[in-house]
Amino acid sequence: MKILIIEDEKELRKSVITYLSAEGYLCESAATSKEAIEKIGVYDYDCFVVDIMLPDGNGLDIIREIKRKGIVGGVIIVSAKNSLEDRIEGLEIGSDDYLVKPFHLSELNARIKSIVRRRNFSGSNEVVFHEITVNIDSREVHVNGKSVNLTGKEYEILVYFLSNIGRVIPKDSLAEHVWGDYMDNVDSLDFIYTHIKNTRKKLLDAGANDYIKTVYGVGYKFSA
Q1: 2-120: which CATH topology?
Q2: Hey, what long-range contacts does 171-180 have (CB within 8 A, 24 or more apart)?
Q3: What CATH code would you report for 126-222?
Q4: Residues in contact with 174: Cβ distance below 8 Å, sequence separation at least 6, in sequence order
Q5: Which regions of the chain carry the CATH code 1.10.10.10?
Q6: By CB neighbour count within 10 A (0-12 exposed, 13-18 middle, 19+ buried), where does 208 fall?
Q7: How does pLDDT run across 164-190, given as a tens digit for each residue?
């Protein structure tokens, strides 16, 4: 899951990124409203963690821009102000949740998981596709009850496929979603083939059918 942390407090931003990265999320950050708007215009995210008070603007305006662009990612507001007016306005313009600083990082993680489940998997903690079962909270994958040991990137690839069943996913979209800003410095997307091949092999070896289809010249499609 790919998250944009919009927070100007350096130490808090670093702590959030360190914690969520250890939980398996791909985290990117912005310290200003301008930087956040630029990233939102270029990259896709599953969730946004937005501080209201930024040095060059208001986080609520960023949320308005997210909604104006029709971006479907979840939004969590974090604020030092326990203001009923801000909370109501944030929910009215489309945020999903509101956390008052200081907060426990474990609580932020739980709320992110809840939003992702609700938006991508109808609120369910388990995603079941035929013989494949994925537990979103524990990041465990099973095929017919047998555990499948996927790497972090292989897991993210599988979950991204399960979030887009039946859709053709271009290589660059898959790469940007799973690897993030790192892709800006990559000359070739050939390495994606290796990750797809390894993911497919592990699923097949565990007894799954082959649901990963190559769409030549474009990318991949996950379907029965």
Answers
A1: Rossmann fold (3.40.50)
A2: 171/218, 171/219, 171/220, 172/219, 173/44, 173/219, 174/219, 174/220, 176/43, 176/44, 177/2, 177/26, 177/44, 178/2, 178/26, 178/153, 179/26, 179/153, 180/2, 180/26, 180/28, 180/43
A3: 1.10.10.10
A4: 157, 160, 192, 219, 220
A5: 126-222
A6: buried
A7: 888 888 887 777 777 765 555 556 667
Residues carrying CATH 3.40.50.2300, the chain: 2-120
Using one digit for the tens of pLDDT, what is the confidence trace for 107-148? 898 888 888 777 666 666 788 889 999 987 788 899 999 999
- Choice between 188 and 21, residue whose per-residue pLDDT is larger: 21
Number of residues written out for the chain: 224
